[in-house]
Specification:
Layout (H helix, E strand, L loop, with lengths): L4 E2 L15 E4 L17 H15 L14 E3 L7 E4 L1 H6 L28 E7 L10 H4 L1 E5 L9 E4 L12 H13 L5 E6 L12 E5 L11 E3 L15 E3 L7 E5 L5 H18 L3 E9 L17 E9 L15 H5 L1 E4 L2 H6 L2 H11 L3 H17 L6
Parallel strand pairs: 2-5, 4-15
Antiparallel strand pairs: 1-2, 3-4, 5-6, 6-7, 7-9, 8-9, 8-13, 10-11, 11-12, 12-14, 13-14
Helix pairs in contact: 4-5
């Protein structure tokens, strides 16, 4: 097995990350079994957390998270919503950009991740064998892992797929595949990956996804689902079956893969097709990737013992929120939809109820009629394999 890191290279004017170490991984590094809490962590977990904690000690963040963890509690109620008090994120985070459109072009004059200092870069991510065919520019094709200087939780990082291309905040197939690989590189079931589109609380219009560790379990890991289509109705073997969350307050689509037999590529293909449809319909969306149970309806009381080695991929079409974002306002994005509520004030932390939280989630969900129309279009998509490529 290759060494965990390889030195960077290059000469002359270069982006901040060109001299960053390279984390090389291959198929053999993807964890498809033995995912458990309290384990020693994978090679990836060790590399990420050690580099992240080095940046914490060096003062690279806008504030320090307490080593004992943020104040946290689980709200009374069947959903088991996890709330955390993180007031400094509201006070110290970079001012969000004004977002006016789901397809807003990348603007080099506004903040983007080509401007971050070198010390915020943890490492470059490279699949072993990248570029061997001679038709891929490694400098462009590499992804980056950088710290989020206003962290939600321990180990909060940003995945930047191909940052040199200066892509706007629209998911590509490659970015989805990288996100799935990131999830499977970790052996910690608390490691989660997510995405906010423009109009769904994304703050920077430069393609990025979030990754962070959350020790508490979330209902999405085992929540009951039902298939959108009957088995065998898919037009293409490249698609994964799409399920719907059965009892969740936010109307969402769910995919599942155990990572084997081309499952990551199929998941990336399916999710890219779904988000492409949402973009064409100008629908904002949030995405959450977590280790979870196979899809269906786990027997009551059995959720804690069901295998969680695979990945649940949850996509929420939603109402758009455009204009200048108030960093102190209560918002609903990927974390909140997944059942993790970072709160800004002690009053919110002590008083929020499950009923209030679910009411806010419903406020951002698509109306039932619009959601039903969207499902009809998704069925046509899955049965006809017709979608745009980006």
């Amino acid at each position: 097995m290759a060494a965990p890191m390889e030195p960077g290279g290059g000469s002359g004017p270069a982006p901040a990350w060109e001299q960053a170490p390279v984390f090389v991984y291959s198929e053999e590094d993807l964890i498809r079994a033995g995912v458990r809490r309290g384990g020693s962590g994978s090679r990836f977990d060790t590399a990420l957390l050690s580099a992240w904690e080095e940046r914490l000690s060096a003062g690279c963040f806008r504030y320090r998270l307490p080593r004992r963890g943020l104040p946290s509690r689980v709200l009374p109620g069947p959903r088991g919503l996890v709330v955390q008090l993180n007031p400094e994120r509201a006070r110290e985070r970079r001012p969000p950009q004004e977002i006016l459109s789901l397809r807003q072009p990348f603007d080099p004059q506004r903040f983007n991740f080509t401007r971050i200092p070198a010390q915020e870069v943890l490492f470059r991510l490279r699949r072993r064998g990248l570029g061997e065919a001679g038709d891929v520019d490694e400098a462009e094709a590499e992804a980056l892992l950088v710290i989020n200087v206003s962290p939600l939780e321990w180990g909060h990082v940003l995945l930047l797929p191909e940052p040199s291309r200066r892509l706007p905040q629209l998911l590509t197939r490659e970015s989805v595949l990288r996100a799935l690989e990131l999830l499977f590189l970790s052996s910690d079931p608390g490691f989660r990956v997510g995405f906010n589109s423009l109009g769904a609380e994304a703050s920077v219009n430069h393609l990025h996804l979030h990754g962070y560790y959350l020790g508490q379990r979330l209902e999405l890991e085992w929540a009951a689902t039902r298939p959108l289509l009957e088995s065998g109705a898919l037009a293409s073997a490249h698609f994964l079956p799409v399920h719907l969350l059965s009892e969740h307050p936010a109307r969402g689509l769910v995919l599942y893969t155990d990572g084997g037999d081309g499952g990551l590529a199929r998941a990336a293909h399916t999710l890219h097709a779904l988000t492409g449809l949402l973009i064409r319909r100008s629908l904002a969306h949030n995405l959450f990737l977590t280790r979870g149970c196979p899809l269906g309806s786990p027997a009551p009381g059995q959720a804690s013992s069901v295998d969680r080695d695979g990945a649940r991929i949850v996509l929420w079409p939603r109402r758009s929120c455009f204009g200048a974002k108030d960093p102190t306002a209560f918002t609903v994005a990927l974390c909140e939809l997944a059942g993790h509520w970072p709160l800004k004030t002690p009053q919110e932390y002590s008083s929020l109820t499950e009923e209030q939280a679910l009411g806010m989630v419903r406020r951002y969900s698509l109306p039932e009629q619009e959601y039903s129309q969207l499902l009809s279009e998704i069925i046509q998509l899955l049965q006809g394999d017709q979608h745009e490529q980006r």
